[in-house]
Amino acid sequence: MSEAATATPPFHLAFPVADLPATRRFYVELLGCRVGREAERWIDFDFFGHQISAHLRPDEVAQARTNEVDGDQVPVRHFGAILEWQAWQSLAERLTAAGTDFIIEPHVRFKGEAGEQATMFFLDPSGNALEFKAFQDPARIFAR
């Protein structure tokens, strides 16, 4: 098999937002995403190698309900990226320095278990929940 055939394909996610300029600032300036194609009512972002599309639909923006996970109330509807451990640390420091209001502060969950991971949750300007996580050993991402 060729390298391209065995590489993980990028995913695509479309989500509603209430304010495109605020969304652009958040994803570009805070998270470091590159803007792709755009039109009057949507913007594509390069989200850590994946394509996400913010669509202007204020009527569809809603706060996610939560479930308890390892003592935290995790927003059920969320998306994010799994980063390399040091990249996660750097992002957590950058977000903290920027005064990010975390839903769940950066920390390590499932300590000592197969799924041990660094995690943090916060909202974009439209209230979409994002989770960024990291594993010391990436082979443990799907460990049971």
TrEMBL record:
Coiled coil: none annotated. InterPro entries: Glyas_Bleomycin-R_OHBP_Dase, Glyas_Fos-R_dOase_dom, VOC_core. Signal peptide: none annotated. SUPFAM superfamilies: Glyoxalase/Bleomycin resistance protein/Dihydroxybiphenyl dioxygenase. PROSITE patterns: VOC. Residues 9-135 form the VOC domain. PANTHER family: PTHR39434, VOC DOMAIN-CONTAINING PROTEIN. This is VOC domain-containing protein.
